[in-house]
Automatic annotation (TrEMBL):
Annotated site, Lowers pKa of active site Tyr, chain positions: 79
EC class name: oxidoreductase
Organism of provenance: Xyrichtys novacula
Cytoplasm found in the keyword field: yes
Signal peptide start-end: none
Binding of substrate, residues: 112
Protein's name according to its UniProt entry: alcohol dehydrogenase (NADP(+))
Location(s), subcellular: Apical cell membrane; Cytoplasm, Cytosol
Keyword NADP among record annotations: yes
PANTHER family referenced in this protein's UniProt entry, alphabetically: ALDO/KETO REDUCTASE
Length: 324
């Protein structure tokens, strides 16, 4: 099993990368350094994570002329945030990420969500009642502006994140530069089998965020299942003499899914890359498929009338009303 997938552009994308979502300032720089030092060649970033400057500090210490790694050896992804969907805002947003990361180009630039928010400096523009101020800018118009970034050489490829199959097809139907990736929540409790099959059929690679089930998500309710503590997974980990996390990451790799586990602990960062020295038997892959509950952990929710509901469900481009 190769440590790379080949995108429709011909680029080779390392199948395991370091995720930087929820990595707090003061930690993420050391995490990126630890990752690069133990062999990672793929770093996943986003403007909305508010830590790209610190990621850039780490990259500047390891990547570039006279450093341990050449720029071509490291695959860097960033993402366009929802408040930057107006076509005239796209280039500036990309250039800001590049400046923070200290790079002249990105290997991949994703539209973080299909939903546009009101433009401005706030990440989450809100009304007085706390609700989000939406914009009706269509993701197709945003995509057309992102295509110009490829033409300018600011990005090597563009892609999607949190798009459903219908929205992915909508972009494919009008794109000059086709989306190469759709980055979505994916783990054994949310296996995304239908979306994965669909994306494969149209030449779009799937990247799994929260590939280990995001046990540290800040809004987890007490009593919610924790994937890494699932006893069925524990039994498999014993069988293969690996950690539960390594078994899950190997499952992703064998399905051809790129995964970007997040950690700030050097020993775990290293362990998460050690998934190329064993293979899961076909029966065990099928067993892990049975864990699926179609359970999304990463959907912003709000309290309404005493119930937790999806925050952006009324947005015209909310992706999760479709089954996949």
């Amino acid at each position: 099993m190769s440590a790379f997938v080949t995108l429709s552009t011909g680029q080779r994308m390392p199948v395991v990368g370091l995720g930087t979502w929820k990595s707090s300032p003061g930690q993420v720089k050391q995490a990126v350094l630890a990752a690069l030092d133990c062999g990672y060649r793929h770093i996943d970033c986003a403007a909305a994570y508010s830590n790209e400057q610190e990621v850039g500090e780490a990259l500047s210490l390891r990547v570039g002329p006279g450093k341990a790694l050449s720029r071509e050896e490291v695959f860097v992804t960033s993402k366009l945030w929802n408040t930057k969907h107006e076509p005239e805002d796209v280039e500036e947003a990309c250039r800001t990420s590049l400046a923070h990361l200290g790079l002249s180009y990105l290997d991949l630039y994703l539209m973080h969500w299909p939903m546009a928010f009101q433009r401005g400096k706030e990440l989450m523009p809100r009304r007085e009642d706390g609700s989000i101020c939406y914009s009706n800018t269509h993701y197709r118009d945003t995509w057309a502006a992102m295509e110009n970034l490829v033409d300018m050489g600011l990005v090597r490829a563009i892609g999607l994140s949190n798009f459903n199959a219908r929205q992915t097809d909508d972009i494919k139907s009008m794109a000059r530069h086709k989306p190469v990736v759709n980055q979505v929540e994916c783990h054994p409790y949310m296996s995304q089998a239908d979306l994965l099959t669909h994306c494969r059929s149209v030449g779009v690679c799937v990247t799994a965020y929260s590939p280990l089930g995001s046990g540290d998500r800040p809004w987890a309710s007490p009593g919610e299942p924790t994937l890494l503590q699932d006893p069925r997974l524990g039994a498999l980990a014993q069988k293969y003499e690996k950690t539960p996390a390594q078994v899950i990451l190997r499952w992703h790799v064998q399905r051809g899914v790129v995964c970007i586990p997040k950690s700030v602990t050097p020993s775990r960062i290293q362990q998460n890359l050690q998934v190329f020295d064993f293979s899961l038997l076909e029966d065990d892959i099928k067993l892990i498929e049975t864990f699926n509950r179609n359970e999304r952990f990463i959907v912003p929710a709000v309290e309404r009338d005493g119930k937790r509901v999806w925050r952006d469900a009324e947005h015209p481009h909310f992706p999760f009303h479709d089954s996949y």
